[in-house]
Amino acid sequence: MIGWAMRRLPPGGLAWLTLHELRGNLRAAGGGRTRWIVGGLVLLGYTGLGIFFSTMLADTPIRGGPIAWLAVLTASLLLFTFMITQSLLAAQRTLYEAGDLDLLFSAPLDPRTVVSAKLLGIAGGVMLTFSLFLLPILVPVAAFGHPGLLGAVALLVALALTAACIGLGVTLALARTAGPRAARTVGQILAALAGASFFLVTQIFNQEHENRQSGLSLLFETMRTRGYGNGAIGSLPGRAAFGEPLAILLLFGGAALLFALTGWAMRHLFLQSYRAGGTRPASKRAAKGGIARHFQQGLFATIFAKELRLLLRDPALVFQMLLRIVYLAPILLVAFRDGRALPLAPTLAFTSVVIAGQLVSSLAWLAASAEDAPDLLKVAPVAKDDLDFAKLLAAMALAAPLGLLLPIAIAFQTILGALVALVFTAGAGAAVGYLEVAHAQPAPRSTFQRRQRGGGIVRNLFEFLIALILGLVAGVLVYLV
Asked: What predicted TM-score, i.e. pTM, was given to this entire model?
């Protein structure tokens, strides 16, 4: 569909370049023909569900009000945090991974058109992702008796445009101030924190109350009592979603104006940041300490130093590890709430085993499969079993700081339970890590940028089942002790 539309547009124009960006985003998502067929069938079924709801609600009045406006505001904040994450990642991909900027900036095109197309591509990719979840339900309901709900489409576009501006602006500011290499790592960290911010806020609200109400409900109730759904600004998203023309004009017009100002202001900054990024290092520093510091005594020390250095150079992997730590934070808040003894030791033991198993599995897969010099390792004077064992130990050592968090929390209630959780956490990591190392198929590390796990679904499910069983056993033993 996108290719058909591009063939009917003048090449090099804003619309043509924007469609080119959207097609690149879809290709970056990966997946073969089977995946697209399955996705199309799921979307078709999802649309059928929307039609079903539209017939059920056809004669039911749907009106706005303080509660409805507050619900839309809460949902908009949740969507916006995820949109910020996606736009940050898309902006980094545009600046550092797309590989087409040299061609575009050397072509007879206006740089403003290129920057605007990049921004529209980021916004379009963000909007397309969330439209697939919202529009198949929303459009049929709006078409059968509730046309005012089409204002939610304008709200979605406004959120996507704003998120794209923020994502590209933050990425360029980081590249300009911290350098391209540091900007990639810091950008991944900010993306992780942005995506988890709403979740963390709701969990913090949950920890501050003794009742069994969910954190999201508590946050909603707090916002309601403070009148956020009734304010002139706080009610704008809800009013726009229910079709009020003035609210739609203000939100959509404001987002479009911000987009235009961003494209104008960032034209030179985009060029300067890209030229500063390129393939050059972030800074020029003289080497210190000689070449001997790069060599270690012993096989394990050498492998560990190599994997640690590659991990720190891989912002995407840092992003994945940080997400695990961020989502562990609410569990730790439960453990240390009000300075009391830990109330959920068996659950924490189970969680520790499962998370450690998944993390060690990912690290062992990268250590054993993402190998740039497999031929060199084959002829090295080292037995393959020793090399695999060293890589497994390196993966476990890298995951150890995360694997220790929950056992330490358990130790505040029971030392023996903490030791049990620690043993089973290490055992789960060793078991699933060994499967990854034993069945590794080495390939250049550059081919692993999308983190598409090899080995098939069966082995991945088997590894998860191992971690799940060991986690259940650990939870039962901690409960008994």
From this structure: 0.67
